[in-house]
Each structure stands twice: as structure tokens, then as C-alpha cells.
Amino acid sequence: MPDKRQTIREAFLKAAFSFLGYIASCDGVINRDEVNRLKVHMKKMHLSEDEQRSALHLFKAGTTPDFNASQALQEFRTSTTPKLIQILLVHLISMARADGYMMEKELHALQWVAREVGYNSIVFNHLLKMIYEQDQLALSLNPPQPTQQDTYSAPSKEQAKEHKNASPNSRRPTTNHNQDLLKAYKILGVTAEMTEDEIRRTYKKLASQFHPDKLMSQGLPQDQLNATTERFKQIQAAYAFIKKYRSIYTAS
């Protein structure tokens, strides 16, 4: 009898690579850059040579006119968990944005996939915005040529002390730090108007969805956990930033 986690792993990889091909073929052309990105992605996932050949075969199968996307999604849904369905969607969105932008046809294909797995347009757009902000944070933390404007920075001790000792009417957020706080809100999918309790509940729910240990126990492939762990760390960092500096930079 096959191991359940191995079965889920194989189902995830099958869905991931076949739908990467499906989405990449939306414009009718598979270019060299898309194939090269796929190969780089496979190496990052530490796939064996046999798995890489299988992944490339699945990718190509997803690009063909006779690929039955509805059936493929149904098969995946019956062999996995709701959390891993979301991780698949996050994975597909991230890969579609790997070159820095997303074509309209790719977006439409992703919207269709989201609907097929039970995500309405509001939930999908919310997820899309969070992924965008998380990717922007990752880029700002590891830019080719970092600048002060791009970094996700916390205020210095001196600045924090000045704000703490200032009168309420004189406490005003600096532009850069206020932008950092807004970034953190967007990463969690919350707003400045929400209460601390609402933000905490949202964070806990989001952290639970991306927690590596929980996803591993549900069968997410080890090689896919790396990307998920990075998102989990970004979520943690954003919440820690909000907790520490929300009262300083939102005081009026």
C-alpha cells in the first residue's frame, strides 16, 4: 500500500507542473525564458533527475490542447487537503509573476483555477495582493543594489524614543516608516483601521495556513517547503513589525 504522504507529494507535483504548463501556454506560445525559469525552479526544488524529466513531461502535457484542466483539478482536490490547495494556488501565482509581471491571459487562467477549487473573486484578489506584497518584501530584503528607500526598516532607538516622549499632537509617522507599516499591513491582508485583536486573529489564521510543520504533516513535498517557509517568515516579520511600531506611528 503506497504511503499517503508520498501519494500527496506526487499529486502535488503533478498538479503544480502540469498547471504551470497550462498557464504558460495561455498566450499560445511557450518561449525559451519560460522553459529556463522552469528548469531553474526544478533545481531549487532539489528534484532528482528522474523527477525533473517527469516534471518537464507534465509541463509539456499541460500546454497541449487536449489537457483536461477541470479533470486534473478534480483529481488533485480528491487527493489532498484544503491547505495544500491554497499552497498550489500560491505556487502558481508566484511562478506566473516570476518575471516581474503577469499577463492578462495568465491572470484569467489563474482566476479560473481559483474558482474551480472554490475561491471566489474577492478571496482570490485578496490572496493575490498578499502574495504581491510578500514578494515585494522579499525583493526589498535582497535587492541587487539596495537603497534606503527599498529596505524594510524599523525606526532607530533614538527615533522611537523621540516619538514616545513627544506630545500626542506632535507624533507623526515619517514617510519611510509609515510606508513600511503600510507594507506590513498589506502582507497580512489587514488595514490600519482594524483593531489589534482583529489583526492578531488574522495573523494566527494566516500563520497556520503557511506553517511549515503543519504543511509537512499534511504531505506537502519537502522540496516545496522552502518557498512556503520563506512566506511564513515574511508573515512573522510583518506581524512583529506591526506589534512593535503600530502604536508609535499611528498615534495622532
Q: Can you put this structure into words, describing what you see?
A:
The protein has 252 residues and is an all-alpha fold. It has two domains: 4-119, TerB-like, CATH 1.10.3680; 139-249, Helix Hairpins, CATH 1.10.287. The protein is 71% helix and 0% strand. It is built from twelve helices and no strands. Helix 7 (121-141) packs across helix 9. The longest helix is centred in the last third of the chain and has 28 residues, at 222-249. It is globular and about 55 Å long. Mean pLDDT is 76; it is low at 141-155 and 166-174.
Q: What attributes characterize this protein structure?
A:
252 residues, mainly alpha, Helix Hairpins
Return the CATH topology of the largest domain. Answer: TerB-like
How helical, in percent, are the residues? Answer: over 70%
Output the CATH class name of the largest domain.
Mainly Alpha
Mean pLDDT: 76
Number of strands: 0
Number of domains: 2
DSSP helical segment count: 12
Shape: globular
**How widely separated are the two ends?**
63 Å
- The run of helices and strands is HHHHHHHHHHHH
SSE inventory with pairings:
Layout: H1 4-24, H2 32-44, H3 49-63, H4 69-78, H5 82-96, H6 104-116, H7 121-141, H8 157-165, H9 175-188, H10 196-210, H11 212-217, H12 222-249
Helix pairs in contact: 1-3, 1-4, 1-5, 5-6, 7-9, 9-12, 10-12
Question: In a few lines, what is going on in this structure?
Answer:
The chain is mostly helical and 252 residues long.
